[in-house]
Amino acid sequence: MDSPQLHIVLYQPEIPFNTGSVGRTCVALGAKLWLVRPLGFRVDHHHLRRAGLDYWQHLDWQVVDDWPTLLAELPTERLWCFTKRGDRGYLDADFQPGDALVFGRESSGLPSEILDQAAGRRLRIPTSELVRSLNLSNSVAVAAYEAHRQFGLQSGPTGN
Fold it and tell me: Which helix (H) or strand (E) holds 100?
């Protein structure tokens, strides 16, 4: 498989349907999905089939045990961390092919020790004051498609 244009990292995701939705977005864009343990669900064949994730066999994905393992195996040092405490909006980022977009747990986001390492690369997706944050899968889609747009790609991996 060709090297992905984009890496999506879910740090300790808790909700299988969000991860499934993110996986669908990754397949649509040809992005690689990285899952950092612990996960709030199982990713074996039975559970994937039961959830109706019929596209999962087309997904380039990998599960790693922890954050240091991710950093050792991820083929980029350009990580963009998404947080409601971001230094700037995601539209102000200069995404490059090969970048990794990092998203935290649905209940608590990314831990401060990861955010502290991401000075200058903490991004937020603006919302009204009436909502705490967007759903994880919506946030990934918004950010991933903006990165895709910046790469100048006019179509998905199949040319459609």
Answer: strand 99-103
Q: Give the domain extent around 38.
A: 6-150
115 three-class SS? helix
* Tens digit of each residue's pLDDT (9 = 90 or more) over 90-148: 999 999 999 999 999 999 999 999 999 999 999 999 999 898 889 999 999 999 999 99
Binding site feature residues for S-adenosyl-L-methionine: 104, 125, 133
DSSP string for residues in 17-55: HHHHHHHHHHHHHTPEEEEESSPSS--SHHHHHHTT-TT
The CATH number assigned to the domain holding 23 equals: 3.40.1280.10
What is the pTM for the complete model shown?
0.90
Name the domain count of the chain: 1
Q: What is the pLDDT of residue 16?
A: 87
Annotated binding site: 104, 125, 133
